[in-house]
Design brief:
By secondary structure, the protein is α+β, with helices and mostly antiparallel strands. It folds into 2 domains: about 5-85 and about 190-360, Aminopeptidase; about 85-175, Elongation Factor Tu (Ef-tu), domain 3, CATH 2.40.30.40. It contains 10 helices and 17 strands. The protein has helices at about 5-10, 20-30, 40-50, 160-165, 195-210, 235-240, 265, 285-295, 315-320, 345-360, and strands at about 55-60, 65-70, 75-80, 85-95, 100-105, 115-120, 125-130, 150-155, 175, 180-185, 185-190, 220-225, 245-255, 275-280, 305, 325-335, 340-345. The longest helix has 19 residues, at about 195-210. The relative contact order is 0.18.
Length: about 375
Amino acid sequence: MSKTDKAKKAKAQPEKVLNSKSMKFLESYLNNPSPTGFESEGQKIWLDYVKPYIDEYMVDTYGTVVGVVNPKAEYKVVIEAHADEISWFVHYIDDNGFIYVKRNGGSDHQIAPSKRVNIHTDKGVVKAVFGWPAIHTRKAGKETNPTADNIFLDCGARSKKEVEEMGVHVGCVVTYPDEFMILNKDHFVGRALDNRMGGFMIAEVARMLHENKVKLPFGLYIVNAVQEEVGLRGAEMIVERLRPDAAIVTDVCHDTNTPMIKKLEQGDFKSGDGPVISYAPSVQNNLRKLIIEAAEKNNIPFQRMAASRWTGTDTDAFAFGAGGVASSLISLPLRYMHTTVEMVHRNDVENVIRLIYNALQQIQDKHDFRYLK
């Protein structure tokens, strides 16, 4: 077995990266709602945590937050995640007070029936539920399946007027209240791990660099971008503003070892087996090579993914923005994406942090990632 395969298959526990302060931040950050287009409260929590580890910060017009280390350096390297979570918009209120919704991002209509929700209004949060006809009233074999067009909210009102008096109107955003928990000691579970786990991991990289007094020979831009779930919009905006030389993006990918997923179509990735490093047109080959070398050198297990035309992550926005930025993608295997019980393995979280932390230290001042040198 090659050294690469041994590193890939390694099952040894990683050195501990997370501490009690990290975990307190993670719980607070995940439990706070940050729907696409309304990320500000979550961004405040994130920025408060990273402030001790950065020299300065910036916030763009739509809410992307950037912590900067060594801002006067000419050469710029980005580590990036996205901050927004999927949600619903109030779309239509009928005369009987039932509320119909429209997706804000890739919200899953099949999990909605019987879920509790928070409707965010100017008067505060209004509690509601996704109602659904009782099983007794449905005919076997002729049942209507939940769709984006027929799921509805019930906030206990009996008329449209009563709903509106609560402060609910078309355009109010709707989120799930499900909170963070840990299963079997090392599985983190909650909503919006896609991709606030990414924001958490890049914040931990900043903390480790600061606490270990690592001096990088370039400017480090720690980017927590908005609006990824509706088309990579935050990344598209911030890449033009920063115009970096390189970008390491982190997001999630599917753990395909759970039931009902076809590995031939989706690939073979498993929680606990390490970060997933992507091959794709938007992934710059020499930057990916550097990241793999960092994994092998530091005995960090990893998995490989082959994308096709695009990765579907902010990597694409950075790679093809600002005249072309050397970009790479490190993914965190995740179960049950776009549900309220998204799940990741603690070892993978720590190994993504370790991989980014070590890869950054292999980038030299004015590192040349050109394809042909």
